[in-house]
Amino acid sequence: MIVRAGIEVADARGIDAVSMRKVAEHIGAGTMSLYAHVPGKDDLIALMVDAVYAEPYGNDVAAATSQGDWRAAMRYVARRNWDLYVRHPWLLDLRPSRLALGPNLSRKYETELRPLDGIGLSDISMDSTLSMILSHVEATARSSRHIVRTQDDSGMSDTDWWAIVAPALEQVMDDGDLAVSARVGNTVGEQFQAASASPDHALTFGLDTILDGIQANLDRQ
Prior knowledge:
- The protein has 221 residues and is mostly helical.
- The protein has helices spanning 2-13, 20-27, 31-34, 41-52, 70-87, 103-113, 123-154, 158-172, 179-192, 199-220.
- The longest helix is centred in the middle third of the chain and has 32 residues, at 123-154.
- The mean pLDDT is 86.
């Protein structure tokens, strides 16, 4: 109950809002009573992180391998992690140098590695491949959250903002030396009604590129 309450507080107000006092208030308990179960805030956050890591696969270590070949499995892994950041964006504010190796994180790691086992990668390459995919998902999720925050702060959607900026940008980019950037920027703007491609496009394009690179390495062996 304490860990779930911490997650609910973080989901609603961010990780900085999590404290033993606020979690106690959330469940209607005295602050000191929490210390009988959790030593402190750092321990609570570690437990919260491990708890949400059970969500992507329900602790089913065969979940990814059941999706098809290794490429389909890794696309599934990427989407599961993307969804995790959507549900719990506060995870993006945690950058520990060493992860707390809880049981759910360990099973998540097993689930995500299994599709890469036996396809021709060394153990080091398997770990590096998974890390590269998860890092791409995290970076794209971080960018997506920044877009949402900018929209909230400005009170304008990307489409509204682009409608205002596009005419002025056309004048700025009306320079022969900027022919390529003007063309590409205009194409992106028209396609996504924003200054950059959508996070969903970035996620898919980057993931496909990573998977193509891994396949190319396997083909050269």
